[in-house]
Design brief:
Helix content is 47%, strand content 16%. The chain folds into 2 domains: 9-78, no CATH class; 92-227, Glutaredoxin, CATH 3.40.30. A hairpin with a 5-residue loop joins strand 6 and strand 7 (207-212). It has a 7-stranded mixed beta sheet with strand order 2-1-5-4-3-6-7. It is an alpha/beta fold. The protein is rod-shaped and about 115 Å long.
């Protein structure tokens, strides 16, 4: 009788298959004992991990929006546009000689408080216009305090002393200085910050007039000084 040569191979293949299944079963049992998902079902575990990170990301995004919203609301409540008739905020600034001053140092005297950036063209023109009309300000005893806004509004310009000297015809009537961060924010409210903004302040500290671009506002400013009996 002839022997079928295929049967031994089939038996060997079946034995190998059973061995592999047995090894796989042992591996799964080992993983379960370690509280690890069996390797035969990796997709579900991957899905759970992916979903977990999606939830974390969504929570983080929501938290960021809440924080930003709170910041914007608080900033809006703490910073407002100053209006004529209210008291001028009494913040500090650094004078040209390095001393720290505030508006209280000028109580009893009318002040033209002017905020500039020393790289600003209209501010340079404003210095020339003010210098050309110094007689009017002197006659009405209006002190002029010209302040570089904090950090020159993020740009690089000359010092306030050089700026006044260069464009103000070397006059000594205008007192220069550098505004503090809080003073800049109080008088020049973001996000629409102006390069060239000024306030006429009474001897008692009230805002009598405000404007932007002093070079083109000299007639209106002089009218406000006269109108308020200064």
């Amino acid at each position: 009788m002839e022997m079928n040569s295929d049967k031994p191979d089939e038996s060997n293949n079946e034995i190998e298959r059973l061995k592999k299944e047995n090894e796989k079963l042992k591996e799964n049992q080992k993983l379960r004992s370690q509280n690890i998902k069996p390797i035969s079902d990796p997709s579900k575990g991957h899905y759970k991990i992916k979903l977990k990170y999606i939830v974390y990301a969504a929570v983080a995004v929501i938290a960021i929006f809440i924080i930003l919203d709170i910041f914007v609301i608080n900033h809006a409540n703490s910073s407002k546009y100053l209006t004529v008739g209210e008291n001028a905020p009494n913040y500090t600034f650094t004078a040209e000689n390095g001393s720290t001053l505030s508006l209280n140092n000028y109580k009893g005297t009318p002040i033209l408080l002017w905020f500039v950036a020393t790289w600003c063209d209209s501010c340079a023109e404003g210095n020339t216009a003010v210098a050309d009309n110094l007689n009017f300000f002197e006659t009405h005893n209006v002190k002029i305090v010209e302040l570089e806004q904090y950090d020159d509004l993020g740009e690089s310009g000359m010092s306030i002393s050089q700026f006044i000297s260069k464009y103000g015809n070397n006059n000594s009537y205008v007192h220069g200085g550098v505004a503090s961060y809080n003073m800049t924010l109080a008088y020049n409210t973001p996000p629409t910050m102006q390069l060239d903004i000024f306030y006429l302040i009474s001897p008692s500290g009230k805002i009598l007039y405000k404007g932007e671009g002093i070079a083109n506002s000299i007639p209106q400013l002089e009218n406000a000084i006269t109108k308020n009996g200064l």
